[in-house]
Amino acid sequence: MKTIHALKHILVVEPDIIQARVMREYLQNESLSIQAVATAQEAIAAADVQLPDVVIMELALPAHNGIEFLHEFRSYAEWSDIPVLVFSLQHVHDSSVLGSLGRVSYLYKPQTSLAELKQQVLDALA
Amino acid sequence: MAKDGYGSVREDSLFFALAEDLKTPLLRIAYQAELDSSADIQSTATDALKLLDSYLLSLTSQASFELEPVNPSAVLFDVAHDLSAHAKRFDCQLRLHNNVSRVSALLNRQALLAALTAIGTVFIEAQSIVGGKKGIELATYKTEQGIAIGVFHTQDSAGITAQLLTRAREHAGTAARPFAGLASGASAQLFIAERLLQGMQTTLRVARRGEHNGLAADLLLSSQLHLV
Fold first, then answer.
1. Binary contact (A22, B32; C-beta < 8 A)
2. Tally of structural domains, chain B
3. Domain at B151, CATH number
4. Strand ranges inside A1-126, DSSP E
5. Higher pLDDT, B159 or B81
6. Three-state secondary structure call for residue B228
7. A72 FRET partner, CA 20 to 30 A, in A114, B76, B126, B207?
8. What is the pTM of this model?
9. Structure confidence at residue B182 as a pLDDT band (50, 70, 90)
10. Nearest CA in chain A to B54
């Protein structure tokens, strides 16, 4: 596994608080600081306060569709190049939906372990 | 109300919602187990998630799958990869027999993978209750009609006979355990596998290869595809 030297900030947008807690505990270390939020609105507010190096997000968000959130997120110039890992229970059958939204990778939760997620985060940071 | 042999449309809608809802608690278990380094619990939850996904995919099959030219041998390798950890956990040897390379059949790759993985899982777990050397074989082989793909086992005492399969089909939806001779959970896995195969215009049948019994599906080759 690659080592990241400077402290990197990961924003997790996950409405399920148990999954969010486990992700935070698994990913957090001396190189990664994790902030978990539950909604799209909170994610925008959090990114405004501290620029994330990577965003991990569920597509099924309360009140908002995750794709809508991504469109809004990308509409701000300073966030347009931030890597986003869509880590979701929802299947994305049409990859072109995400392909037009910049640096976005898709991981289907039931087929992705936390170890694989962490590796994807480190790859995105490298 | 429309029926496909396993349940009504309304029941399927309910079970669809149930299967989707069950994914979240299973994911929580899988992730917490990974955090706690509990490999057996993690893989148990992951296997249950696979079963749910296969079931959800089997519901899609009622509207029929999109079929495309697929190399069955390549799918067989993917099934072996998916089953390897499960086989190891149950001390079961996994073998591949591939006798039909360089052919294509009109299939849905995801559905075939899910169906064979489900059958393989059943056979691995069915043998866990008997002693002796355990093993399954994933095979593609030529038949008079074309080619067949299937899963076979080396333990007769854990076998599925034609009679057992026929009786289980008759009892599907009414008996709690249509495959009474097998480990619990087997009926769902095998019925899901069968429904997935039906979505590709084939079905599950009892088969025998040498000394090994198993379940297989006939895949009809398109001569046009064969030439390509």
1. yes
2. 2
3. 3.30.565.10
4. 8-13, 32-37, 54-57, 84-88, 104-108
5. B81
6. coil
7. A114
8. 0.82
9. low
10. A110
